[in-house]
UniProtKB/TrEMBL annotation:
Lineage: Bacteria, Bacillati, Actinomycetota, Actinomycetes, Micromonosporales
Domain of life according to the entry: Bacteria
Transmembrane segments annotated in the record for this chain: none
Domain AMP-dependent synthetase/ligase: residue ranges: 14-356
Name under which the protein is recorded: Acyl-CoA synthetase (AMP-forming)/AMP-acid ligase II
Signal peptide region: none
Residue ranges of every copy of the AMP-binding enzyme C-terminal domain listed in the record: 408-480
Gene source species: Actinoplanes regularis
Length: 534
């Protein structure tokens, strides 16, 4: 009989190892594989080794892994089986950032991938494979297993709009809604499910829980490469695919879907950011046999979420909750607003909530009575569907108007030459702020053509007064544009670096401002020559 009691992550692994011992749980990009029996055996061996080395229930252990998902999965479950909390450390962080994170959360130990040690510090470091190899640990102990209310993981948020936060989640939060032997298991239509989320992200952490509970084998593709990703899907006959919008855009622009047979895919899941309508249409064409589902949640809000099958009749809609009492739009004072009015988006679930580690004031602001403030502005349509307007911190206050960067980005991505786009507000002495955007092009185009294109899709207040063409957009590990860095790129050259060259075209603007199409400014992020863009 399925259990309705609060569970821990070790409970999930033990039940699966007993039920499906020889089934492959995880495949990774290093050609590694891990059965449930091996996962359970190695995790328990690691837990005993950690206990023997002095790790106690409530301690915090950092995991620094790159693409060794099998090793990471063992390390994660071994640490939590020892009663400690896991802090995944992204290898994309600089040594200074890693060192700051490890000190900030107060780690006891660092486990790391072979050849990928952490920055120097006062922690003892160990390779998970060494600790779990039979007979290599001189001292073992009896671990103190966790309770459902104990912290299981602490994930550093992306910091795409500001300073990152450390979000703590309990076992009860991660295991909310899970039962030990569900019938049927999720994604039972698939033998394999594929993702390319980096270790250290919330999306990656949720994939581990899926590996423990869902029906298919989890194939971890490593760093996203569109052609390789599509090749893995075809080779393994994957029925379920997880991605984020930036991956979707890259996949479609690469035409990789035309070089591989993707007819095996039945479910395509997009999350982490709003899916631009142009990308949604492209995915529907690229995966004709698949149902395309868009998920809306956040690191802070999980497991609260909204999802819906992407509907061409509602291209901007993100869905509506199962219960209308789990979503609300409020004004600044917290009063609920009626459909049609724009306000702050709040979500809730009946799961034990997450919190910000060491930040009670921040937790009090975001987590309130089971509700999670999403940091987004949105509205409900007449049928209760959520329409996202923008990140609250990204809305451009231009004169008396509020301009959505999401609308600008969606319009830019409709242009056939624009591969990537990110919009921000830049200071203006009269308007307060005005829109500007950074774009990556996949073929030469006259930027006047881009502006003319936008003028048919955006209002005058939404038209960017400056476009910067770059080789790549600064993005975080989950693919979201890093808005503070994009604002820095769009600063006037005198406030940043002396430009290499700055040919620009001034075009009449409805607000009497100049439309500056800067083709090359910072040599670190733009072309050395603008010839190919002329």
């Amino acid at each position: 009989m399925p259990s309705a009691l609060p569970l821990t992550v070790p409970d999930l692994l033990q039940a699966r190892a007993e039920r499906d011992p020889t089934r492959v749980a995880i495949l990774d990009s290093r050609e590694g594989s891990l059965t449930f029996a091996d996962w359970q055996r190695d995790a328990q061996a690691l837990a005993r080794s950690l206990a023997g080395r002095g790790v106690r229930r409530g301690d915090r252990v950092a995991l620094r892994y790159d693409d060794d998902w099998c090793g990471y999965a063992v390390a994660f479950c071994g640490v939590v089986a020892a009663g400690a909390a896991v802090i995944p450390v992204s290898v994309s962080l600089s040594p200074v950032q890693q060192h700051d994170l490890l000190r900030r959360v107060g780690v006891t130990a660092v486990l790391h991938q072979v050849g990928s040690p952490p920055p120097d510090g006062t922690w003892w470091s160990a390779c998970g494979s060494d600790l779990t190899a039979a007979g290599t640990s001189a001292v073992t102990g009896e671990p103190d297993p966790p309770e459902p209310g104990d912290v299981a993981q602490i994930v550093c948020t992306s910091g795409s709009t500001g300073e990152p936060k450390d979000v703590a989640a309990s076992h009860a939060n991660l295991c909310h809604g899970q039962v030990l032997n569900p019938r049927p298991r999720r994604y039972a239509h698939s033998r394999t499910m594929v993702h390319a989320f980096p270790i250290g992200t919330n999306a990656g952490q949720m994939m581990l829980i899926e590996a423990l509970t869902a029906a298919p084998t989890l194939l971890c593709a490593g760093r996203f490469d569109a052609d390789r990703f599509c090749g893995l899907i075809a080779r393994h006959g994957a029925g379920t695919v997880f991605l984020v919008p930036s991956m979707a855009v890259e996949l479609l622009r690469s035409d990789a879907h035309r070089r591989h047979d993707l007819s095996c895919v039945r479910l395509l899941s997009s999350s982490a950011a709003a899916l631009p309508p142009a990308a949604a249409r492209g995915l529907t064409e690229a995966f004709p046999q698949a149902v395309l589902v868009n998920y809306y949640t956040s690191t802070e809000a999980v497991p609260a979420q909204i999802s819906m099958i992407v509907d061409a009749e509602r291209p901007e809609a993100l869905g509506r909750p199962v219960s209308g009492h789990d979503l609300r739009i409020t004004d600044a004072a917290g009063r609920q607003l009626p459909p049609g009015e724009v306000g702050e988006v709040w979500l809730r679930s009946d799961a034990p909530p997450r919190s910000y580690l060491g930040d009670p004031s921040g937790s009090a602001t975001v987590f309130r009575d089971g509700w999670v403030r999403m940091g987004d502005l949105g509205r409900l349509d007449a049928d209760g569907f959520l329409i996202l307007v923008d990140r609250e911190s990204d809305v451009i206050k231009s004169g008396a108007l509020k301009v959505s960067t999401l609308r600008i980005e969606a319009a830019l991505l409709e242009h056939p030459a624009v591969a990537e786009a990110a919009a921000v507000g830049v200071p203006h002495p009269v308007m307060g702020a005005v829109p500007a955007a950074v774009v990556r092009l996949d073929r030469p185009v006259d930027l006047d053509d881009v502006r003319d294109f936008l003028s048919t899709r955006l209002s005058r207040a939404e038209l960017p007064v400056r476009l910067l063409v770059v080789d790549h957009l600064p993005r975080n590990a989950t693919g979201k544009p890093v808005k503070p860095e994009i604002r820095r790129l769009l600063e006037p050259p005198a406030r940043r670096h002396p430009p290499v060259s700055a040919p620009a075209a001034a075009v009449s603007d409805p607000f009497g401002r100049s439309f500056l199409a800067t083709l090359t400014t910072d040599p670190a992020v733009t072309k050395e020559s603008d010839d190919e863009h002329q």
